[in-house]
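USER: Note each token:
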Amino acid sequence: MLNPIGTHTVSAQQSGAQTHTIHCPDKHLNESGFGRSALQSVMNSGYLSHLLTLLQALLEELSKGQGNTKPESGPNPLPTTTTGQSTDQSMAVPETEKITQSPAVPPSASSSGISQATSPQPYLSAAERETLRYTREEEKLARDVYSALYERWDNPIFANISSSEQRHTDRVADMLQRYGIDDPVTTNAPGVFQNPELQQLYNELVARGQSSLSEALKVGGYIEELDIRDLQRAIDESSNSELDQMYANLMQGSDNHLRSFVGQLTSREGGYSAQLLDQSEIDRTLSEATAKGTGHGGGIARP
């Protein structure tokens, strides 16, 4: 069925552009579009050339319209790469920041503590450390010798002073632990020492004290004089007030022990002769005890 309209209108319209209309008179236009005769008629006429001209003009006007159009106000869109990811440098994290972040410090490593269960230990010189180790074994030597002499003579003075020496060596062990120093006493067995000089001295003193009770009491006096001399040297070399105080307390105990041995020997033999210290120092120690009313009998003034 033929279209009752005698012309076919071809139009092109775009926002902001003019509308162009081409009228194509053809009696053979039907519902399916241009017929073959209609297409031939358009091609033979100048309409096709005119149509192309109009399309070209329309494209130029569209191009001008897009060039003059301003973007809406607002933030500029981020440029994207071919993968669609943002390349805005103000938003990117520098590579150095990505790889230099410090790891979290565990609570155990905080500045308040050592896991922090223990605080950093005060400084001790090598000489102070060695003296502390030596004193630990020297106090153990006194304990072990007195225990051996008590077994031989069954005299309470040896048992009592041996118990006091146990407290002394324990104090030194605590100080070693506080300063993080290895304890030379690896076994509590009597008569066992790491220091070869102390090992030899122990053997000699125990053998000497086996001959008589008087000689055993002199062995006790010798050990206490030795302790007093070495403790005074330790105080002189130390620059640590805590060590000085401990050594002074140990030396006070040795003074008391010495007076006890001297008291028994004086009762037995009428006096006591110094073995390592000056006799004047022994006499001064005894006179101080007398002035304090402690005397120099067989009793023991505990430190």
Observations:
- The two ends are 136 Å apart (CA to CA).
- Strands lie at 7-12, 20-25.
- Residues 7-63 form one domain.
- Residues 1-34, 70-120, 296-303 have pLDDT under 50 and may be disordered.
